[in-house]
Amino acid sequence: MREQSQVYDPWYPLCFGTLKGMDFYQDKTYAQAVEAVLADRSTSHYLRERLEHDKLRDPVDAMRDAEILLILAVKREQEVFDEANMMLALAAAEKRDIQ
Known about the structure:
With 99 residues, the chain is mostly helical. It has one domain (12-98). It is 66% helix and 0% strand. The protein has four helices and no strands. The chain has helices spanning 12-16, 30-39, 45-54, 59-98. The chain is elongated. The protein starts with 11 loop residues before the first helix and ends with a helix. Residues 1-6 have low confidence and may be disordered.
């Protein structure tokens, strides 16, 4: 786990978080990997629906959409963390001013 003092890296989840366990799927076919994800109780309803829907789509189109979703999700996460970091910095500055 990363230390709190480190600068936020939006690609961190792809290396050490959400997708860390994806190595498990490398030795499986697409169908086997999808079934493994669907069998996982922690898989979100959205991801389940998306996987079922993407089975019927052109794989190139599905990949392009997934890449765009990833880029936008990383941007959104970065903005949320940036705002939270700014709020923490403001709160710390106010606390110093009060003392």
